[in-house]
Amino acid sequence: MTKNIKVAAAQLSPVFLNKQKTVEKACKAIKEAGGNGAELIVFPEAFISGYPDWVWLIPNSKGAELNELYLELIENAVSIPDSSTDKLSKAAKEANINVVMGMHERNSETSNASLFNSLLFIDNNGDILGKHRKLIPTGGERLVWSQGDGTTLNAYDSSVGKIAGLICWENFMPLARNAIYEAGTQILVTPTWDKSPNWLQSMQHIAREGGVFVISTCMALKMDDIPDGYDFKNLYPEGREWINIGNSAIISPNGKLLAGPLASQEGILYADLNLDDVIKAKRMFDVVGHYSRPDVFNFSINKN
């Protein structure tokens, strides 16, 4: 592990509800980032194969329409491992880069018919380090994704340091963050669908709170990225161009922006990190160290 590393945030659009082509696009981005010297690349929430934005548009009473969309989600979701993860692992190894990929994950351990909003962690040797399943889908997302549990609330040793991930608004959960901090995380990846200025402010706060680097990656998605055959596309306001502008960013442990935010375009952000900055940030405030007060507070995670 080196102290000076280069990281990348891939603000890209998926090929909507097309797993094969989205994986191909991801592998191309992995190769590009590795060729540019990056040692870690982070993709958006639900990149494979697209954020189900219809959950905010279609009422649950439209069961037939929702059933068809859910079927497409399942058919274009990933099992860990499968041929899609094999391709991602191969690309990571060939590019000598660590990869964190957002995806719809099938519950292959049981019915194979429910979905989790998951992050897949792959190291630069192409080995799967683990996965994280989003603990609480937000609002309408609960009509699509199941709840994760404490067994995937982990940090992973890698060639770029200790990396962990929380997805979108589970980053607002103080105890989830504390679990990640206690695991010794140096780089926190926060794939999201939230493009708002308030989100970036929260990420800057979390970087300072945890004394960690934060890589916030959001999907850039235009109306044209959704094929016209999907009826829910007509529910957006007339004339709308962008469904999500992205606003991805890379943030230092002192809360300063190192790269981004990148808005209204696809692209890969890069930043150079020095892991010594993680230790320096904790001199005055170490939330799970000298500032933790275990004599006052108790904390535990249910890993069962």
N to C succession of SSEs: EHEHHEEEEEHEHEEEEEEH
- Number of contiguous helices: 6
Mean pLDDT: 96
- Gap between N and C termini: 31 Å
Provide the gyration radius in Å.
19 Å
Structural class: alpha/beta
CATH homologous superfamily label: Carbon-nitrogen hydrolase
- What CATH first level would be assigned? Alpha Beta
* Largest sheet descriptor: 6 strands, mixed
Percentage of helical residues? 10-25%
Would you spell out the secondary-structure blueprint of this structure?
Layout: E1 4-11, H1 19-35, E2 40-42, H2 63-75, H3 83-95, E3 98-106, E4 115-122, E5 128-133, E6 155-158, E7 161-165, H4 174-182, E8 187-189, H5 197-210, E9 213-216, E10 221-222, E11 242-244, E12 246-251, E13 257-263, E14 267-274, H6 276-281
Parallel strand pairs: 1-2, 2-3, 7-8, 8-9
Antiparallel strand pairs: 1-14, 3-4, 4-5, 6-7, 9-12, 10-11, 12-13
Short summary:
By secondary structure, the chain is α/β, with parallel strands linked by helices. The chain is built from 6 helices and 14 strands. It has one domain: Nitrilase/N-carbamoyl-D-aminoacid amidohydrolase (4-Layer Sandwich).
